[in-house]
Amino acid sequence: MALNKSKECNGQISSKAEACSHCGAPAKGRAAIKRKKWHERTSVTLCVAAGLIIVGFGFIHVITGVVSPFEVPFDIVLKESFGYSETFINARKIIALPYTAAKIKYPISCKALQSRNYIDSGSVFETRMTRHLRENMKTWQAEFERALNKPQRQWQDKLMGHTPGIETDSEDPNACNNRGIASAKEGMYEAAIAQFTRAFQRNPVFAEAYYNRGLVDLAIGQLGQAISDFTKAVEIKPEFIECYETRGPIFVAMNQYEQAISDFTKVIEHDPDSAETYFRRSLACYANGRYDEAWQDVHKIQSLGLSVPAEFLTLLRAASGKQR
């Protein structure tokens, strides 16, 4: 009977064990079928779900550091096109950046934040942020200079090339330059510009006359002409440090930070301990998004035993995401 029963059970072996569920006979002639574990049964589902999530991130921005209209501490914005650039946006970090740097480093994020009205849109916002940055930089510069306790020279005192005793010679370029200096100190700016122009017309390599006219241009607000005159002066006299020293801040005022950094670097090469120039360059690097270089200048200033304005350090930390 046992033999017959075993035959009857042949082919009905339980999938839970390697023996027949009816007679207990060992499985012979075919492998026992094991039941899959939970992670084996769900692995395909998990892979599919993960794939869908990854694809989904290609269509959305996730904005943190804000409170959405639904009162949750993040927001989601559809992307203009599929991709994974700037998928996660830290709004607080971007708002802390100078607008010029933010626009260069995070252009897509700026657009996403503007589309949800977390920051203002268009030229109005850019103008306001640029003005705010410029005002901050002026404030920090003034604070740093007060800490230096360094006497400030009037621009008229920087005029160069005076040669005594030849003012009456109308054809001599040095006499023209002398008359230009006298007119500038008396506030007769048009006459001064005319005399400096006459000076380098008679002597095309009269670098000091170009420099002097640049100072007058700067005094009356003709920034572009001032840059042109200082540039001509350094073309004639490449080591004319006073030109770089004066032209650098003009580039900053015109948001031309790369050129400003180059000029400040020239000054530092001439005077490696010029704390004021290090600070000016650190501000230009900050405004241009070159944070590591800004930190290097800050550390150099501190190594000279000087303090850097606390507000500037706070914003530099926020912008760079580093604790220094």
Write the layout of secondary structure elements.
Elements: H1 2-9, H2 38-57, E1 60-64, E2 74-78, E3 88-90, H3 91-96, H4 99-105, H5 107-115, H6 122-148, H7 173-185, H8 189-202, H9 207-219, H10 223-236, H11 241-253, H12 257-270, H13 275-287, H14 291-303, H15 310-320
Parallel strand pairs: 1-3
Antiparallel strand pairs: 1-2
Helix pairs in contact: 6-13, 7-8, 7-9, 8-9, 9-10, 10-11, 11-12, 12-13, 13-14
Computed structural class: mainly alpha
> Could you give the distance between the termini?
88 Å
Spatially, the strands of the biggest sheet line up as 2-1-3
Q: Report the uncertain regions.
A: 5-9, 11-17
CATH fold descriptor of the largest domain: Serine Threonine Protein Phosphatase 5, Tetratricopeptide repeat
CATH top level of the largest domain is Mainly Alpha
Q: H/E order of the elements?
A: HHEEEHHHHHHHHHHHHH
CATH architecture of the largest domain: Alpha Horseshoe
Average pLDDT value? Answer: 84
CATH superfamily of the largest domain: Tetratricopeptide repeat domain
Share of helical residues: 55-70%
Major β-sheet annotation: 3 strands, mixed
Describe it for me?
- There is one protein chain.
- The chain has helices at about 1-10, 40-55, 90-95, 100-105, 105-115, 120-150, 175-185, 190-200, 205-220, 225-235, 240-255, 255-270, 275-285, 290-305, 310-320, and strands at about 60-65, 75-80, 90.
- By secondary structure, it is mainly alpha-helical.
- It has two domains: about 60-120, no CATH class; about 155-320, Serine Threonine Protein Phosphatase 5, Tetratricopeptide repeat, CATH 1.25.40.
- It has a three-stranded mixed β-sheet.
- The longest helix is centred in the middle third of the chain and has 27 residues, at about 120-150.
